[in-house]
Specification:
Blueprint (H helix, E strand, L loop, with lengths): L1 E2 L2 H9 L3 H13 L6 E2 L2 H13 L9
Helix pairs in contact: 1-2, 1-3
C-alpha cells in the first residue's frame, strides 16, 4: 500500500507544476486493486484547507 500525502494529491488535482504533476499523475494512475493507495485523514483535511485558502476554491469546488 502506498501512502498518498497532500502534495501528491494537490499536484494531481491542480496540475499546476508540470514536473511534479506528471509524477503525481503517473503514481495515481499506477495504483491497482492489489496495490492500492492510502490517503490519511489529515491529508484530506489539509487538502481541503489548501484548496480553499491558497487556491481560492469555494466549498462546492473543493
Amino acid at each position: 500500500m502506498i501512502g498518498l500525502e497532500t502534495n501528491v494529491l494537490l499536484r494531481y488535482i491542480m496540475q499546476d507544476d508540470a514536473r511534479q504533476s506528471l509524477k503525481a499523475t503517473k503514481l495515481l494512475e499506477s495504483l491497482m486493486v492489489d496495490e492500492p493507495g492510502f490517503v490519511p485523514l489529515v491529508s484530506v483535511v489539509e487538502l481541503g484547507w489548501v484548496l480553499s485558502s491558497c487556491y481560492d476554491l469555494d466549498r462546492e469546488q473543493v
